[in-house]
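Now for our target.
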Amino acid sequence: MHDALVTASEPRPADAIFILAGRPERKAYGLTLWRAGYAPTLILSVGRFEWRGIQALGLSSDGGLRALVDQTPPERRHFFLIVEGSRARAEWIPRGRFGTRTEARAFSRLAADRGWRDILAITTAAHTRRTGQCMRRASRGRLQIATVPVPEALSGIQRNRWWTDPKARRFVIREWIKLAVYQLLP
């Protein structure tokens, strides 16, 4: 069940690295790839309470994220933190009913505005299939998207133990349900 959800790509040079909101290891791994020079631009999708962990990433600036958090009610909090070199800029994105789809749509608009064509999308292995589908649909095929999973050694969802770990089991089962629901969306 786990492996059928995985459509993974190896990291490669790209225009931007997009890290989906959610599990904290995604941000740490994406940041490692950015610092290694895989792309000049890093975009972190920051969910409702994730802003609290941004300072721990060691970025030179939060790009105004804290100020946006302070002026945004918790139920409306979702942001992109766009990092280029030592510059960072936070921007609010509207929250939608379907999180990954909302992120993909907002990111596709940003990519179109910036002229990006080649993207690394960083997520959990069992989330790569749905991420890729959402990103391709949202960009209408205009982006080359490599869905890059967090390496097994860093992931909280272990391929060889997912069935025995209650949290991982819920993640995989929910991912199958979400994948089915997303298939029905336009």
